[in-house]
Amino acid sequence: MNCPKISVIVPTHNNGIELRRAIESILAQDALDVQDCTVEILIVNDASDEEFKDQLTQLTLDFEQCRLLNTSVQSGPAAARNAGICAADGEFIGFLDADDQWPFNKVSILLPYFNDNSIDVAAGKIQYIVQEGQPELNMKFEDELNRITHVHLGTLLARKSIFEQGLLFDETLTFSEDVDWWFRLREKNINIVIDEATTLFYHVHGNNMSVNKNIGELQLLKILHKSVQRRKANQSSEFMPQIKDFRVDQPDPLISIILPLYNGKDLVKKSIDSVLSQTFTNWELIVVDDGSTDGGAAYIENNYPDVKVIRQKNAGVAAARNTGIRRTAGEIVAFLDQDDEWSASKLRDQWELLKKDPYCSFVTCNQIFICNEGVTLPANFSEKLFEEHRSLVPSALLIRKQALLSVNMFDQSLEVSSDFDLIRRLRTAHCKEANVDKLLLKKWYHGENASLNKPLMKKEILGLLHRQIKGR
After folding, report:
1. pLDDT band at residue 154, thresholds of 50, 70 and 90?
2. Range of 462's domain?
């Protein structure tokens, strides 16, 4: 980029000296000192009282970078920002509320991300600064600096071009127009990155518009409902990334691994050992014993004390997986059958691919079949299965829990094809997928695999094809 212009939009209504502080923080950017960019500041006067007009005029006299836009009727922040966007000359848009500040290095932190032409929005973290005499905020901060990753517009820079894609602010919203805007960004698969650095100082002074408002006052349920309705109308995935999924330096998440167990005492050791050998180490293993009669659950408890064992009456493998999903602590889920085995890098390779694309719902991997010695293969068993190929079975999945919940998990009415049906429903919901093109899964054929019940499998798959035709 060759010294782009950034248009910074500052809505104001009856703001005093804090507005000057906000403008000075924009003009103090170190990126301006080294001429990495130029800046214009669009002060949008949202019908301030008469006593503030001279102050606003004085700001345009004191700072040549400032332009003043006046509205005759107070219309709220969304309308003020839209007016600023329409008047902006810059290639990039930034926002700042009149009572907040930018850190001096905000632009120099975010601007380089746009060297990647696929990035449309870059943001950072918010640091909350509570004015003396104000009560402490009831918020869960990420660190001791009172910082969080959130949707506040003051943290970001955006290409002006995205606002031409139906992404102006909803002027019918009095509050949370920024939350609504972030929803619409993600619905349109806009490419976003969020840096770990602070890019906004948010001042809490007691008169903030949104502080200490309840969900109803903030119109959050209305915003969520509108998002759901848009996605239904567009037949798009109900899964949507969380804001933190866009962080460029994400720590390894907790991966919850679910292993259904049914009379698999003699099979499960190599499966669990393959979990213990993973190079990705932030995981929990949940074994759901589905009414076994061979003592497998006790065997695991005695030999693998760190494994969580849940017992239930026999209800089938889909019910066991769903029980495990409900008990997970992690936001990323993996499955492992009692007769399967992972390569040591399975979770690491899949997570590295999944985190690169927040819009991706699930990642698969390649597999081969291995036959136990002395087992006779059925006549219809394809020799191609002994060659490496992409797998869509549960043991090959790494999936966001939110995506699983959005399609109502596994269908417990299906005995042997609930895994096939899950992939069908994820694809019907237009959930994005990817594959690690490496051999990461070994499936053992031992003659008692549930999936080899061909008559039942054929019956259930025909039923699923009927559902697909009916659009269910």
Report:
1. very high
2. 255-469
**Count of the separate structural domains present in the chain:** 2
**Do residues 70 and 177 both lie within one domain?**
yes
CA atoms of 29 and 68, how far apart (whole Å): 21
pLDDT in tens, 259-314: 999 999 999 999 999 999 999 999 999 999 999 999 999 999 999 999 999 999 99
Q: Are residues 174 and 291 in the same domain?
A: no
* Residue 167 confidence (pLDDT): 95
Same-domain pairing of 461 and 408: yes
> What pTM was computed for the model?
0.85
Could you say which of 197, 228, 246 is where a domain stops?
246
For the chain, the three-class secondary structure string (H helix, E strand, C coil) is CCCCEEEEEEEECCCCHHHHHHHHHHHCCHHHHCCCCEEEEEEEEECCCHHHHHHHHHHHHHCCCEEEEEECCCCCHHHHHHHHHHHCCCCEEEECCCCCECCCCHHHHHHHHHHCCCCCEEEEEEEEEECCCCCCCCCCCCCCCCEECCCCHHHCEEEHHHHHCCCCCCCCCCCCHHHHHHHHHHHCCCCEEEEEEEEEEEEECCCCCCCCCCCCCCCHHHHHHHHHHHHHHCCCCCCCCCHHHHECCCCCCCEEEEEEECCCCCCHHHHHHHHHCCCCCCEEEEEEEECCCCCHHHHHHHHCCCCEEEEECCCCHHHHHHHHHHCCCCCEEEECCCCEEECCCHHHHHHHHHCCCCCEEEEEEEEEEEECCCCCCCCCCCHHHHCCEEECCHHHCEEEHHHHHHCCCCCCCCCCCHHHHHHHHHHHCCCEEEEEEEEEEEEEECCCCHHHCHHHHHHHHHHHHHHHHCCC
Are residues 54 and 176 both part of a single domain? Answer: yes
Same domain, 94 and 189: yes
Based on the fold, state whether residues 274 and 240 are members of the same structural domain: no
Band the pLDDT of 59: cuts 50, 70, 90. Answer: very high
The answer on 181 and 324 residing in a single domain is no
Using DSSP bridges, classify how beta strands 332-335 and 389-391 pair: parallel, antiparallel or unpaired: unpaired
Judgement on whether residues 40 and 101 belong to the same structural domain of the protein: yes
What pLDDT is stored for residue 366 in this prediction?
A: 97
Q: List the CATH number of the domain containing 179.
A: 3.90.550.10
For 159-172, what is each residue's pLDDT tens digit?
999 998 889 999 99
Quick one: pLDDT at residue 233? Answer: 85
pLDDT score for 213 = 61
Domain boundary among 195, 218, 246: 246
